[in-house]
Design a protein that fits this description.
The chain is mostly helical and 81 residues long. The chain is 62% helix and 0% strand. The protein contains 3 helices and no strands. The two termini are 26 Å apart. Pfam families: DUF3098.
Length: 81
C-alpha cells in the first residue's frame, strides 16, 4: 500500500530553473513598460516631440518582445532530471 501511495505523489510542472527564467522575463516586460511611460504634455494644446524618442519607439517595445520570448522559453524548457 505504501508503495502505491508514494507513486501517486504529484510533482510540480516547473522546476526552480523555469521559475527563475520566468521571473527574468517578467522583469524585462516590466522594464519595457516603464520605459514606455511618460512623454506626454501637461497642456493638451501643446505637442511634445519627446514622445517619439528612441527609448519609447525602439528600446521599450523591443524589451517587451524579448521578455515575451523569454517567457515562452521558460514554459517550453524541459528541466533536467
Amino acid at each position: 500500500m505504501k508503495e502505491k501511495n508514494q507513486n501517486n505523489q504529484s510533482e510540480f510542472l516547473f522546476k526552480k530553473k523555469n521559475y527563475l527564467i520566468m521571473l527574468i522575463g517578467i522583469l524585462l516586460i516590466a522594464i519595457g513598460f516603464i520605459l514606455m511611460a511618460g512623454g506626454g504634455s501637461d497642456d493638451p494644446t501643446v505637442f511634445n516631440e519627446e514622445i517619439y524618442n528612441f527609448r519609447r519607439i525602439r528600446l521599450a517595445p523591443t524589451l517587451v518582445l524579448i521578455g515575451l520570448a523569454v517567457e515562452i522559453y521558460a514554459i517550453m524548457a524541459k528541466p533536467k532530471k
